[in-house]
Amino acid sequence: MNDPIDELLSTSRGPDDGRLRQEILRRSTAVLRRRRRLKQLALAGSLPACFLAGMVTMRWFAPPPQQQVVYVQAAPRPEILPEPKKEPVMPPSAVAVENKALDSPDRRAELYRQAAELYFKEGDYASWVRCKDNALSEAKKDDLQVSPDDDFLTIALKKERQKKENQDARGVD
Predict the structure, then answer these.
(1) d(CA 13, CA 160)
(2) Cα separation of 144 and 124, whole Å?
(3) Alpha helix (H) ranges present in 75-124?
(4) Measured between alpha carbons, how far is 112 from 136 in angstroms, rounded to an integer?
(5) Contacts of 159 (CB under 8 A, 6+ apart)
(6) By percentage, how much of the chain surpasses pLDDT 70?
(7) DSSP string covering 21-83, please?
(8) What's the pLDDT tens digit per position in 8-45?
(9) DSSP letter at 149?
(10) Would you say 116 and 132 are in contact if contact means Cβ atoms under 8 Å apart?
(11) Do residues 158 and 150 lie in contact, with contact meaning Cβ atoms separated by under 8 Å?
């Protein structure tokens, strides 16, 4: 009984080929030598890499260099006294100028005009009209004439004053 599988499973010695064995031995020893040299080179290369890594680590964790502190004594300066501070001059308020006009018998008309201008700048138009009217009440007869420098309110108030004086003059006759 000849089974074809038995033939395949049996070890048969083929022709002794010494050249094939020599070629396989040569190739395998070359691969083994190459692998051994690579391992040696890797080991030799890892030593400088570890050294370099250690140097870098020491540089990162090294304490900062001590700074040298030098004390220098300055030459004594002559003492210079600062100039006394001047209080900023605030322009008087409109109320203050109006009160000053009430207390001043000589310059009432002029002070009322100044107070009126200040009230106008502040936007207090009722006080502006009141001060303009008071300035005309305290003004001389020559100041009641309409001039080109007058604003619209002053012109209206002056004309009203002139009408009032004319009516008073007619009523007195």
Answers:
(1) 148
(2) 24
(3) 94-103, 108-122
(4) 9
(5) 146
(6) 95
(7) HHHHHHHHHHHHHHHHHHHHHHHHHHHHHHHHHHHHHHHHHSPPPPPPP---PPPPPPP-PPP
(8) 777 666 666 788 889 999 999 999 999 999 999 999 99
(9) T
(10) yes
(11) yes
**Tens-digit pLDDT profile for residues 88-102:** 777 788 888 888 888
Element (H, E) at 156: helix 152-172
- Give the Cα separation of 48 and 52 in Å (integer): 6
The residue whose two tokens read 């007058």 is 150
DSSP letter assigned to residue 92: P
Return the ∠ at Cα 149 (arms to 144 and 154), rounded to 5°.
Answer: 45
Task: For the full predicted model, state whether its pTM sits above 0.85.
Answer: no
Q: What is the pLDDT of residue 54?
A: 92
Q: Show the tokens assigned to 78.
A: 């002559």
Instruction: Please answer whether residues 115 and 101 qualify as being in contact, where contact means their C-beta atoms are separated by less than 8 angstroms.
Output: yes
